[in-house]
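Anyone? Bumping this.
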Amino acid sequence: SYELTQPPSVSVSPGQTARITCSGDALPQQYAYWYQQKSGQAPVLVIYKDSERPSGIPERFSGSTSGTTVTLTISGVQAEDEADYYCQSAASSGPYRVFGGGTKLTVL
Amino acid sequence: QVQLQESGPGLVKPSQTLSLTCTVSGGSFSSGDYYWSWIRQPPGKGLEWIGYISYSGSTYYNPSLKSRVTISVDTSKYQFSLELTSVTAADTAVYYCATEGAVTKSFQHWGQGTLVIVSS
């Protein structure tokens, strides 16, 4: 089965830049999406189609891609950004959606 | 703005069938703009995509769950439903309904989620 791999945790101080990676063999062919999930809440889409930002999402959230790795970058991290972040994409064969294991962002 | 609300039993016995319904408001249910999806999250773990149904009734399921899952839609009630048969404790999770944009292919709108515990 297809898998997306994320680091379990990332820690940054307020005002610094956080980078969360997601690796998968099909990412050169399939778009990636990023979701923020705060404790006890449903996930919220923060990036779609690798690098597009939905309306209402702060400009400090950005996405990029390079080969089999996509990256969510949060510039000028704020305390409110502390959450779990999940990447999501599709397998290259068939409309099978998959999520990465999630990365817990801790703001020190 | 599309809003989603899950409903159904919070406790299901092992080997029985888990049944949940998602009620949709604020959007055009049959416009083809969305795929109507189910996603689950075991306590303390990550997200798992279960499957979707399109406005035309086409379905696609996670291969790991395909033999036990059925997603259906009732357009007259603005609802879509999930059935998961032969449940075990491993199916204990928060179950979310969500819309996947037919163009953006992203999960744009989510219900609040409902916890289903499988236990005797």
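Late reply, but here is one note on the structure posted above: The interface with chain A takes residues 37, 46-49, 52, 60, 62-64, 96, 100, 104-108, 110-113 of chain B (CB under 8 Å).
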